[in-house]
UniProtKB/TrEMBL annotation:
Gene Ontology MF terms: peroxidase activity
Keywords per UniProt: Oxidoreductase, Peroxidase
Statement: the UniProt record of this protein carries the keyword Phosphoprotein: no
The protein's name: Glutathione peroxidase
Domain Thioredoxin: 5-169
SUPFAM superfamilies the UniProt entry points to: Thioredoxin-like
Annotated source species: Ramlibacter pallidus
InterPro entries linked to this entry: Glutaredoxin, Glutaredoxin_subgr, PRX5-like, Redoxin, Thioredoxin-like_sf, Thioredoxin_domain
Database matches in CDD domains: PRX5_like
Organism classification: Bacteria, Pseudomonadati, Pseudomonadota, Betaproteobacteria, Burkholderiales
Superkingdom of origin organism: Bacteria
Keyword ATP-binding appears in the UniProt entry: no
Length: 247
């Protein structure tokens, strides 16, 4: 099981080897943490369910908000080899996160977070946690409770962000239902793009479009925009919403 947190202590001094753009690179703890504010989250392994479906994608989504609140970089650490981490990064929503392999477990062991998962045929892996590091010193850690399995209760991105700034505003989650060749859809996407608002474009194939629109939003035409689970509406509603955001 993990050891007590290292709050108030320096991060371990190690040299990481990783791959980027199909090349070998190195970075030291000092280069990564000294004189900087870094949000770190560590997890049991690449391609594992919770790590891939929730932990990494949410940190990636909130990384710009972390930066807006004084965090220089968001880093994901896992006891995996550099090739695995590189391939996982390619397959995931991780453009905003520095994917850092701790292949030999040196950093994780000195953090007191190396645990034995031989029962799952994983070998030695990291316990799940997150932390905020300022100028090489661990300021705050959120370590998952010592429970069987893979608990995921406190090391999430939202918890760490709200530690950094309890009033931090999370980005809106925007999705746009569209169809290919729709001029109104193109107009709505341009409005969102020009306003710098990230969104998920969900093109509906003609074979299911009518049923899908009726079932999802009781509408018959596209585009249809949703924000944080709430239906905003069609093209005119998108324009009104974007204008309201600009005020």
């Amino acid at each position: 099981m993990p050891q007590p947190t290292r709050e108030g202590q320096p991060v371990p001094q190690v040299k990481f080897r990783y791959r980027a753009d199909n090349e070998w690179k190195e970075i030291t703890s000092d280069a990564l943490f000294k004189g900087r504010t870094v949000a770190v989250f560590s997890l049991p392994g690449a391609f594992t369910p919770t790590c891939s479906s929730t932990h990494l994608p949410r940190f990636n989504e909130l990384a710009p908000t972390f930066r807006d609140n004084g965090v220089d970089q968001v880093v994901c650490v896992a006891v995996n080899d550099p090739f695995v981490m590189e391939e996982w990064a390619k397959s995931q929503e991780s453009d905003n996160v520095f994917m850092l392999p701790d292949g030999n477990g040196a950093f994780t062991e000195q953090m007191g977070m190396l645990v034995d998962k031989s029962d799952l045929n994983f070998g030695k892996r990291s316990w799940r946690y997150s932390m905020l590091v300022r100028d090489g010193i661990v300021e705050k850690m959120f370590v998952e409770p010592e429970e069987p399995g893979d608990p995921f209760k406190v090391s999430d991105a939202d918890t760490l962000l709200h530690y950094v700034n309890k009033n931090a505003r999370e980005p809106d989650q925007v999705a746009l239902l569209t169809r290919e060749g729709c001029a109104f859809c193109a107009k709505a996407k341009k409005l969102l793009d020009d306003a710098g608002i990230p969104y998920a474009d969900v093109p509906l194939p003609h074979s299911i479009r009518t049923r899908a629109l009726g079932a999802i939003c009781k509408a018959g035409t596209v585009p249809q925009m949703f924000v944080n689970g709430e239906l905003i509406g069609g093209s005119d509603a998108v324009e009104a919403w974007v204008q309201q955001r600009r005020r």
